[in-house]
Specification:
The protein is of the alpha+beta class. The protein is built from four helices and five strands. The chain is rod-shaped, with a radius of gyration of 28 Å. The chain starts with a helix and ends with a strand.
Length: about 140
């Protein structure tokens, strides 16, 4: 019996404390690198979501202008009231979309989580896609 116990103790497999500490240190280093990267990815996705909201408003305004050809501009509230747009997302009240031959333009602001404000300055769908029709501020 004693020989059997000694044999089993020699074949015991597991992690030593040093090996366990090494794994924990490596995981800590990986976490220290990954957390800031994930934070910036989340912020970029929030900005992109606000830009997508603006592009949806431009698309809704296109439909509005087809039915109301004499109107030179439309507000976000009018689009919602006339059922051209159901959800405004991050866009704030006071957004105005102006009809133009070169492409409708949107002006106003969007508020995203984290306290950032996105300002659209006569942005067209093309300028929004090219990421130069808006500014992001704290």
């Amino acid at each position: 019996m004693k020989k059997l116990l000694q044999k089993r103790l020699k074949n015991e497999k597991g992690l030593t404390l040093v090996e366990l500490l090494a794994v924990i240190v490596i995981l800590g280093i990986i976490a220290a690198i990954a957390v800031p990267s994930i934070g910036s990815i989340i912020e970029k996705s929030r900005v992109n979501a606000a830009v997508a909201d603006a592009q949806n408003a431009l698309a809704a305004a296109n439909l509005y202008f087809v039915e109301n050809q004499d109107e030179p501009s439309v507000t976000l509230e009018e689009l919602k009231d006339n059922k051209f747009l159901q959800d405004v997302g991050t866009l704030q009240d006071g957004i105005e979309i102006t009809k133009s031959d070169e492409g409708n333009t949107i002006s106003g602001t969007a508020q995203i989580k984290g306290g950032k404000t996105i300002t659209f300055n006569d942005a067209t769908n093309t300028s929004l896609s090219n990421k130069n029709g808006y500014t992001v501020s704290e």
